[in-house]
Target: Actin-associated protein FAM107A
Amino acid sequence: KHFSFLPASMYTEIQRERPDGGNILTHPDYIDGNPDLIKPKKLLNPVKASKSHQELHRELLMNHKRGLGVDSKPELQRVLEHRRRDLLIKQKKEEEEAKKLQSPFEKELLKRHQRLDQLEKEQEKQEDHAPEFIKVKENLRRTSTVTGDEKAA
Model:
């Protein structure tokens, strides 16, 4: 029997009070009618007993009856997400391959290049702190040597 038309709480109550005929498990040996023994009760699943789980289950059942799938995203959105995911995976693979393919020589060249860039930045900072008349004087020297060399040629 399907009890999908009942609320989730009533469905769980029916499951707990199910007649013995529907039980697939074998009957335990300790049921002999002795009133001194404590009969064990089946533990409740806290996830299934929670209100949020019951509401979600009810919503899924209603969507199933209406014919709506769980994955109801438009096809275009799914394709775009798939492409984005593939592109990210591809980029990560390329980066990993680039790191693996670097030889010790290339690594050393990269270190030297970084050091040179750092030294150039330090020199630019020092030049920025120099007084303006020194900068103008250096520019004048450069122009005068260039014009003097051009005249000699």
User: Anything to note?
Assistant: The two ends are 106 Å apart (CA to CA).
